[in-house]
Amino acid sequence: MSQPRVRMYSTAVCPYCIRAEQLLKARGVAEIEKIRIDLDPAQRDEMMQKTGRRTVPQIFIGDTHVGGCDDLVALDQAGKLASLLTGDAP
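and the corresponding structure tokens:
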């Protein structure tokens, strides 16, 4: 089974984006589709519409909106990130 697509709305200089990316890679994510909202304001608008949030990163695993870096870390600590990354989450 293939891994769900991982998308991350981010900016060039964002320590939380870097931290989130490091955690995802440590959990076996080979490819992260980065959407740079600092380069494309329309993408920022799209991110805010989809998430209701204006901060980065905003992370999607498949169709699931995980949230930001703290949300990702909390999901990992709760033991739920792995199943989301393998597509086994309900």
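(Above: one complete record from the training split.) The first helix runs from residue 15 to 26.
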